[in-house]
Structure prediction request, 329 residues.
Amino acid sequence: MSLLSVRELSVAFPSARGVVRAVTDVSLTVGPGETVALVGESGCGKSSLGKAIMRLAPIAAGTVSIEGTDITTLGPRALRPFRPRVQMIFQDPYSSLNPRHTVGEIIGQPLAVAGRPRAEIRERVAAVMARVGLAADAAARYPHEFSGGQRQRVGIARALVLNPKVVICDEPVSALDVSVRAQVINLLRDLQQDFGVSYLFISHDLSVVEHVADRVLVMYLGRVVESGPAAEIFASPAHPYTRALIEAAPVANPRLARTRSRTILGGELPSPLKPPAGCAFHARCPFAQAVCRERAPRLEPGASGRAVACHFPLLPPIGAAALADRLDA
Ligand code: SF4
Prediction:
């Protein structure tokens, strides 16, 4: 059984200019010990999806289940026993920490809300702080006294103190200096082993995702356009958007660099208030044909757990010459 299961989930926000359809019909599962990555440009809906799973964003349709129980419509009281099982690490480790509380209070807050005795809270806070690499005396200090990397360790400790099954990591290293990103990524990997936790890892940075993910879902304008095992997707992306994202990553995939010409990701993400007709990616896609402007491709399952939503997927992997032929066609 999946720890987390999302079925045909849609998220919509009312706005002054109409309804923003941030997420449409997204399904995913996260199993024990897995890291599932949600990737895409800023504004593609991945953070809205993470918040909807936490019940922090309005769910317009679909379901979220935790260990087989549908929590989509549970009220605050009925939701309470499920809260500890899924926790979240936020992008900005400063704004997500209350500056008026000590680090010890911040990390212990989920235990206090759960009504645990003070002695137990002290003990568990000390244990998780040691595990994430924070010195014991940090408990009495305030967030502003720490560096960005240390503050993110506080956020990680707060997420883990309840021994969750799944942690949603929302761009957990993108606000950090490059020099500390690898440390935090390695820490998250070590903690996954220690705590047996699963991650839903939200990131726009594919060079980070390549290091951590078992499976990947690529989102564009609120929909999944490609999904599958991370190693396969990085070795041979099937959707033109996936391929452009991989090639735009700071450390380009060397295999793609050797075998394929470069796809430039031009233009901007369209507005979710006015999604384009047909394939939402058609205005930016070098392979777009007439049918792409008229008919939206469905997410079609393929071999070895992969799925792609494209009328002309880049599978099987094609070389630079064949790619040039397609571009000329
Ligand atoms: Fe490009 Fe057409 Fe595929 Fe959309 S459906 S990604 S426009 S080839």
In short: Residues 4-213 form a domain with the Rossmann fold fold (CATH 3.40.50.300).
